[in-house]
Amino acid sequence: MTLDQLMSSVAYERARYQGRERVMEMLVDGSIDDHPMTTKVDATIELLSYPIARMIVSAVADPGFVRRYAIAEAKKANERLRNEDIPFVMKVAGELGLDVSPEDGGFSIDFADFLRFSAKMRSKSWKLVNQKIQKGRVQLTKYRLTRIIESVLTEKFSSELPLEVNEAILGKFAREIEEIKAVLEVRRKEQRTEGMGRVSIVRFPPCMKKLLEMIRAGENVPHSGRFALVAFLHTLGMDSEEILETFSTAPDFDERKSRYQVEHISGEISGTEYTPPECSTMKSYGICFDPDDLCQRIKHPLSYYRFKRRAFRSRK
Amino acid sequence: MPLDESTRFVMRMFSKHYREAPLHMPDRFSKREFGFMFFDRQGMVRHVGFPQRAQLKNYLVEQVPAHVYYSCAYYEKPDAQTMAEKSWQGADLIFDLDADHVEGAQDLPYAKMLVRVKEEVIRLIDEFLLGDLGFDQDDLRIVFSGGRGYHVHISDPKVLKLSSHERREIVDYITGTDLDIDWVFPSTTFEIGRFKDRVDADRKRAMPLASEGGWRARMRKGIDSLLEELERLTNTEATMRLAEMFKDSKREIGKKTIEGLYKDLFGGRKGRRGVDRMRDENTFEVFSEKRHADAFMDLVDMRVRVKMKGETDEPVTSDIKRLIRLPSSLHGKTGFEVVPLDRDRLDEFDPFRDAVPETLGDEAVEIVLENPVQLDLRDERFDLGPGKAEVPTFAAVHLICRKQARIGP
Ligand code: SF4
Fold first, then answer.
1. How close, in Å, is residue A144 to chain B by CA atoms?
2. Which CATH architecture has domain B361-409?
3. Most exposed of B199, B216, B290, B355 (fewest Cβ within 10 Å)?
4. What dotted CATH number matches A81-144?
């Protein structure tokens, strides 16, 4: 079977349909649904829908979307894996390059692998200090092992995407691509006005609002401005992924460069977590934009945010 | 700035050392950034790279830095000025332990301080690095820092790419930071390995086993030795000892609680006492009152955890582009050599004998001391009064570097 056939042959119409569905489900629900695979044909179609879905995702060419898709696919894989038997799970882990050994009642992996693939899990129970470790091996239950595998897969999928897409693919899925782009655009607009997850943009001081707008619009922001904004968002509790996501709407978004900057400022690379500068410093850098009345009463952009929060609560 | 005679003398001797001593080269040598501090200039020179070892050697002989550092990281372009341009490729995992991080070591005289720090380094290496984390002896390079402590460098390929956050996890492991007591003492009402934030007042806890991995085993060993310590004491001695241990407790723990706790553990017939059941049945449920159990838990958290933890300087380990002293260079504030060691040599290692550079020789030098000094160096005892004295070169360098002596008027 060639790519051409997969793209155009009538025989693969169902696979193409399924691939489209995968992406759309992810777009709408943020996760991928279970597709019953009762027959061998079902299974083949499911399998072939992967490359289709990946091509569509790649063609949309939106870093945030690609990342979300990788996460969703990995999560899906985890859900399936959880129900598989031990030899199968071990085999999958092995194929992904994880060195897993069976341990009485569970598994063990090298602590360095454990650290690498549990870095995003911030609950206390995932900390290395709360693991059973012997001779460099961390003991895991099956549930935890498949969760680790999910992380491996997220990393793998993210690194494989976006695929290169040709005209034929762009043409074939033009409608879907347009549709997805439109949905993403609407979301972005909503986000801009509503805020980002737990962080409420309405409470931002004017300087940070302005910096965020500029970055999202791809305007040239001085380093001091980027620094102030990233440190600000980080202090409000956004992690690097979320911050990157926020920036990814910029037309000139350079993931590699931005990731480095963000991870540096948030302390993931440097080990030092920076805090945003106070108003006087912001002023001397020339990035204190349009200060308002509240600004007269505070000395630090963070106090502005906190103050607003209080004001919001008391109004209710 | 004209140099005084003492500085010129020390620089001459350092230069001689760099000319004659074999230089220890880190692996991936040409990918490392180097940094230097000098006797005769302020500030630090960094972002220097050396494609070949001969170039580094020349630099040392000619520029005679007081302190020589290289990066634990290796880079695509080690001499680029900014981190982004340098392009980070990986970094050795570093542990740094000096007197500031060992309780009670800061106030000791220099020689005793180094002995105390060495004990902690040995614990760090044996218990944590070779023990729990399972590193190979061959993967560890232990280094006497030339100053107040020791470094351990690990270049096992699997750690080179670890991020700062991941390295901090290793530090937290060693220092027992965020150890979850509910995980260490699993309660029988919940499945092992599951965590709940809620604090249940009367759940039944089990003792961790010494055969389990990680901090569970470590805490069990700590508890066992605490119990043994108390068992050896008489009733009155033990309650006094306990009262002393509870002094820093957050809660008020009164005499009655302490006596009750002691009775629960050691009262009754031998073989049936609380402590015996704790050991034999691995249970925590030997206390007649909740107050006693809570007090014991306090002990576990305050005494046992703190006693069993390892020490290391957190920012050094989590900084993936740290500069660290180059092994076989000299330390400008002591004149000691930064000595590379292996685990077997560490036990016997005595900086005052083994870190005095061979290259310095023993021709007599006349020095002047402000205050009397007593010192053992290279198995020789120096008992120097204030005023002029004649000492071998190696001793003169050490004393001048430590600002205890000078040359000339
Ligand atoms: S006064 Fe402070 S908070 Fe207000 S805009 Fe200027 S820098 Fe921002």
1. 10
2. 3-Layer(aba) Sandwich (3.40)
3. B199
4. 3.30.200
Q: Which residues pair with B236 in a beta bridge?
A: none
pTM: 0.78
Confidence of residue B84 (pLDDT cuts 50, 70, 90): confident
pLDDT band at A195 (very low <50, low <70, confident <90, very high): very low
**Whole-number average pLDDT of chain B:** 89
User: Could you tell me which residues come within 8 angstroms of residue B370 by beta carbon, excluding any fewer than 6 positions away?
Assistant: B386, B404, B405
- Closest to B36 (Cα-Cα) out of B325, B273, B272, B312: B325
Domain boundaries, chain A: 3-61+162-181, 81-144, 194-315
Q: What is the pLDDT of residues B307-336, one digit of tens each?
A: 899 999 888 998 898 999 999 999 999 999
> What pLDDT does residue A99 have?
93
SS3 at position B366: strand
C-beta A291 within 6 A of ligand 1: yes
What's the DSSP call for residue B160? T
Would you say B51 and B30 are in contact if contact means Cβ atoms under 8 Å apart? yes
Question: Number of C-alpha atoms within 13 angstroms, CB side, residue B296?
Answer: 28
Residues of chain B with pLDDT > 90: what percent?
A: 58
Identify the pLDDT of residue B283. Answer: 85
Alpha-carbon gap: B374 to the closest alpha carbon of chain A (Å): 42
Kindly state whether B44 is in contact with chain A, defined as any CB-CB distance less than 8 angstroms: no
**Which pLDDT band holds residue B377 (cuts at 50, 70, 90)?**
very high
Percentage of chain B lying above the pLDDT 70 cut = 96
Shortest Cα–Cα distance, B165 to chain A (Å):
6
- Condensed to tens digits (0 to 9), the pLDDT of residues B89-109 reads 999 999 999 998 888 888 899
Question: Under a CB-based contact definition with an 8 Å cutoff, are residues B243 and B216 in contact?
Answer: no
Residue percentage of chain A with pLDDT more than 70: 84
> Which residues in chain B are contacts of A227 at CB distance < 8 A?
none
Ligand 1 center from residue A315 Cα (angstroms): 23
User: Nearest residue on chain A to B195, judged by CA atoms?
Assistant: A125
State the DSSP code for B216.
H
| Distant-in-sequence, close-in-space partners of A104: CB < 8 Å, separation ≥ 6 | none
For atom 6 of ligand 1, the residue with the nearest CA is A288
Could you please state the CATH topology (level 3) that the domain comprising B5-173+313-358 is classified under.
DNA primase, PRIM domain (3.90.920)
DSSP secondary structure string, A152-220? HHHHHHHHHPSPP--HHHHHHTHHHHHHHHHHHHHHHHHHHHH-BTTB-GGGS-HHHHHHHHHHHTT--
Instruction: Phi first, then psi: give them for residue B44, nearest 5 degrees.
Output: -120, 135
Q: What is the mean pLDDT of residues A121-135?
A: 88
Helices (H), B32-148: 53-63, 83-86, 110-123
What distances in angstroms separate CA B251 from CA B145, B247, B248, B291, one per listed residue? 42, 9, 9, 11
Residues from chain A that touch B215, judged by Cβ atoms under 8 A, are 129-130
The encoded tokens of residue A58 equal 């790649």
Contact B212 A132 (CB under 8 A): yes
Which of chain B's residues have a Cβ under 8 Å away from the Cβ of A123? Answer: 195
| Measured distance CA(A148)–CA(A127) in Å, rounded | 13
Which residue among A135, A137, A268 places its CB closest to the CB of B164? A268
Average pLDDT, chain A: 81
CA-CA distance, A291 to B52, in Å (whole number)? Answer: 55
Does residue B360 surpass a pLDDT of 60? yes
Cβ(A276) – ligand 1 distance below 6 Å:
no
Distance from the CA of A300 to the center of ligand 1, in angstroms?
A: 7
Query: Domain locations in chain B?
Result: 5-173+313-358, 181-308, 361-409
Pocket test for ligand 1, best of A227, A281, A295 (most atoms within 8 A of CB): A295
d(CA A234, CA B219): 36
